[in-house]
């Protein structure tokens, strides 16, 4: 089976070089690969073109649906590897959608890349609901885990899987990033932190927003809350630099 990617434009897979915009690797030059498909549906998702295809009626605040043919492309892993290597990466960020839904193809892709770039650092951005099989897990250097809180609109039984959250909290490669829209969201984060023993050094708070004004407004009240609870704050650097655009 080929690997299925999102597109920057019809037929063009979303593989690009940029600065990592959020999380523990913020500011690092990276090559990004955005895979298509997701098992969750966040109402504020800024990459709804990876899952909300025509006929999908799961709620989204934009209300837009996307033509699958124009927004999804399946390519051979060798072709994907060539496109990635042409960007001369030393850090690869696999994002989505939910990348771990395509574990077999992703395993083959990373194996091909590591054959040529043995020291390639691989990060996977995940919603924290899917387990990577051993063959893939051993290839991953860092998990950027973003569990979805109640304001995402997802049912907690689907979005917060206890065994997965516990496993990630015990994995030193995993860093948690929680999207915060209102001060009340922090109560849910603190409860998850207590329940699963998430270390403060591996827990970051990030304001929800797809424009600079919204992000700055929310950081003004989120920053003192992070200080009060000894937690880290992360911005969305790519939004300030490039706006809410694909391939950035």
TrEMBL record:
[4Fe-4S] cluster binds at residues 38, 42, 45. GO terms for molecular function: 4 iron, 4 sulfur cluster binding; carbon-nitrogen lyase activity; magnesium ion binding; S-adenosyl-L-methionine binding. Residues 25-244 form the Radical SAM core domain. GO terms for biological process: tRNA queuosine(34) biosynthetic process. Gene3D superfamilies: Aldolase class I (3.20.20.70). InterPro entries: 7-CO-7-deazaguanine_synth-like (IPR024924), Aldolase_TIM (IPR013785), rSAM (IPR007197), rSAM_sf (IPR058240). Its EC number is 4.3.99.3. Binds 1 [4Fe-4S] cluster. The cluster is coordinated with 3 cysteines and an exchangeable S-adenosyl-L-methionine. Binds 1 S-adenosyl-L-methionine per subunit. Its cofactor is Mg(2+); [4Fe-4S] cluster; S-adenosyl-L-methionine. Pathway: Purine metabolism; 7-cyano-7-deazaguanine biosynthesis. Keywords: 4Fe-4S, Iron, Iron-sulfur, Lyase, Magnesium, Metal-binding, Queuosine biosynthesis, S-adenosyl-L-methionine. PANTHER family: 7-CARBOXY-7-DEAZAGUANINE SYNTHASE. Belongs to the radical SAM superfamily. 7-carboxy-7-deazaguanine synthase family. Homodimer. This is 7-carboxy-7-deazaguanine synthase. The gene is queE.
